[in-house]
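User: Predict the full complex structure for these chains.
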Amino acid sequence: MTASAHMQAPDTDPGYNFAYLDEATKRMIRRTLLKAIAIPGHQIPFGAREMPLPYGWGTGGIQVTASILGPDDTLKVIDQGADDTTNAVSIRRFFHRVAGVRTTTRTAEATIIQTRHRIPERPLTEGQVMVFQVPMPEPLFKLEPRLAETRRLHALGDYSLAQVKLYEDIARQGEGGSSYSHPVMVNHRYLMSPSPIPGFDNPKLHMSPALMLFGAGREKKIYAVPPYTSVVSLDFDDHPFRPVRAPHACAACGSTTSYLDEIVTDDRGGRMFVCSDTDHCAENQMARKAAE
Amino acid sequence: MKTGFTDPVLDAQAGFRALMQAMARPGRVQQVIPPPELPAGLEAAAAATILTLADAETPLWTDAGEEARAWITFHTGAPLVAEPASAMLLLNTGATMPALATLHAGEDETPQDGATLIRQVTGLAEGSGWRLTGPGIEREHHLAVMGVPGDFPAQWRANAARFPRGVDVVLCAGGRLAALPRSVALREGG
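Assistant: Here is the predicted structure of the two-chain assembly.
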């Protein structure tokens, strides 16, 4: 029995290496991550492994998390802002089982936050690492289907296709056409997909104190945004990027600043708006209760 | 043969987190978990970096002595290469440093193939010395490095000028390390 087995929580499954992946795979992913950090926003191919859940359920994010995770970490997993959805619960239980790490739903307590399509409302800190699950890492894929060609466009820094697309959206409908997955320029060099986070979250990538790692399992790509790095949503001087939020207050906590989900409540057009970030909403409700 | 990490799984994880933090926050000095025994000529941080990153897939160049070479081959299986230009990892312990311009810098479409130079230096200190700016640094970090060639800042400027191609450097002193990703700009004297 190795020393690492002794340090794991008692209910850790002894049939797996720490954090599931074998050490050679972790080394390969770790080397890729270091290069991704050194070249902010540049997509790097990696040998994505089969994971015990299907592509599209966060295999890229899980492999990144498994490669950086240590026994001292506290892991939070969110799916569209919520800690209690199937994907988030399954991934949290997976890492508790194969790595014995502490898990949490509190943003403030987490050292690693794996996310599907949101960035928490609470400002991140230098001690935190975000891991994004990415379905399609190539920001140009709807404009140029040939990957060999998109690689060349990234090498040349030629993003005119994306600018023309944005121009056409504005010319036709008066504003940019993407409410999520709106492409960003990283460190003034690479055009990057922020993963399908709402445009509302794009500004949180800019000069964040936290390290941001992106893993795409099916597409086998890893990329990163280091802390305190310029991340600018693609826009024009006379049509600046505007993050959009539903013009309502959260029905549960009353927040007028958080990103809201629209929930249909009946078949007569009834609807309500609540925070997408469940931890943030719970904190607000507690604070409100304490104040009363 | 000297042993490797006490715990090959968790010590490598700790070593990687130190490297990841160093690369993400250039100029901040990180601490590694040292291997319990070290071959002649290798200090803890450089040895831990090799054990963390090297394996059969990483052609490695080193100017370290015979014992260190045998130790690296035994513990990592990394193929040793004679030419610095054909290496993916370089472990540099001697007085002379291979010129950054001669190392593999990747290509425009594949800049990630640029080499990683692990240079053992005599001292690292935060707060004075080179002024570093760029991704990972809120305003500026200062890093004093003892034991690199006098023309290192000039070499670094040439390296940074060909971004996104380039070489990344890990500076190791004793059990501590700091990193210079190719994206960072370096100026001498505050």
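Chain B touches chain A at residues 6-10, 12-14, 16-17, 19-20, 23-25, 52-53, 55, 57-58, 108-109, 111-112, 114, 116, 135-138, 163-164, 168, 181-183 (CB under 8 Å).
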